[in-house]
Design brief:
Blueprint lengths: L27 E9 L25 H24 L5 E4 L3 H4 L1 H9 L3 E4 L13 H16 L5 E2 L10 H7 L4 E2 L9 E3 L6 E3 L8 H7 L6 H16 L5 E7 L7 H15 L4 E3 L2 H11 L6
Parallel strand pairs: 1-2, 1-8, 1-9, 2-3, 4-5, 5-7
Antiparallel strand pairs: 6-7
Helix pairs in contact: 1-8, 7-8
């Protein structure tokens, strides 16, 4: 019998936990996740910005495919420059196929020593895959072949998991995941053969729900991001917090949004007591203080 996902993360109130320690007496660790995906025009699009004319779905879906393609041709490079200019190393959640289909992007990220995090092989929900194990392994193999190192982190497309996904990821050697948006600190997830760490991710400081679903103005990323960071910074005086910022090249990488992303980065970097790490660095830091529980 499959285990309920909720049974894998025993409840823990943040006010009851031993205090974690960050270097330099810091209060908050921020990680930036750049989601880089392969959308194939032969299939239905993972997301759309234009509804089909007269309500009649059409394939190939040229306008919505091209909307995403703009992010790969132009938007990604704006985000890359914003991070490079500030000396920030992000985590790139990437489909395994990107290493072959967009080698220019993968090579640029590799040259800057970005962390490659598995994000499925081809953009699409985990529960629709005919074989999750095969897709997970194909993703890991593609990233390892390109970078020389297998990914240790994983973000499922759309944060989708079935009752067994976390076990498949554990079996494949994945050490941390970004699917479980349930805490401001890392949390151990019970899995077989080894526990997997949940590194705090976000559906709030995330340009997909913020801009595409909630349809906010471009400056929302800056205003909400500052409010989120400042509150976590204050709370971090008693218990350190983790903050995630999730962006997509075809959303944040457009001309009318990129300035607000840059201003948010400047606010964070201008604050004392803040660190900007990769997901792997957060995972390594937490493991050193709270090793995986025995199964």
């Amino acid at each position: 019998m499959n285990r309920l996902l909720s049974d894998r993360v025993p409840y823990s109130a943040i006010v009851d936990r031993p205090r974690l320690a960050l270097p330099n007496d810091s209060r908050v660790v921020v990680w930036i996740i750049v989601n880089v995906e392969h959308w194939t025009i032969e299939r239905a699009m993972p997301r759309t910005i234009l509804s089909p004319p007269m309500g009649q779905p059409l394939q190939p879906d040229l306008p919505n495919w091209a909307w995403h393609e703009y992010g790969m041709r132009v938007g990604f490079w704006r985000i890359l420059e914003a991070l490079k200019h500030r000396g920030i190393t992000p985590t790139m959640a990437t489909n395994g196929l990107v290493c072959k289909s967009y080698p220019r992007i993968a090579e640029a990220a590799k040259e800057l020593d970005w962390e490659f995090m598995g994000h499925g092989y081809l953009q699409g929900p985990m529960h629709k895959l005919p074989d999750q194990v095969e897709s997970i392994q194909a993703t890991i193999d593609a990233i390892k072949t390109f970078t020389g190192t297998p990914p240790v982190g994983w973000e499922s497309p759309g944060l989708t998991e079935t009752e067994t996904t976390i076990d498949h990821l554990s079996q494949a050697g994945i050490e941390y995941v970004a699917d479980w948006v349930l805490d401001d600190q890392p949390v151990w997830i019970q899995a077989t053969p080894n526990p997997v760490l949940s590194v705090p991710y976000t559906v709030e400081i995330n340009d997909i729900p913020m801009m595409l679903l909630q349809q906010n103005r471009s400056e929302e990323m800056l205003m909400r991001g500052i409010d989120q960071f400042d509150r976590l910074w204050r709370e971090g005086g008693t218990q350190p917090r983790i903050m995630a910022i999730s962006v997509h090249p075809y959303v944040t990488g457009v001309p009318h949004r990129i300035d607000y992303f840059e201003k948010l980065l400047d606010h964070i970097q201008g604050s004392s007591g803040a660190e900007i790490w990769t997901g792997q660095a957060i995972s390594d830091w937490y493991r050193a203080q709270n090793p995986a529980p025995s199964i």
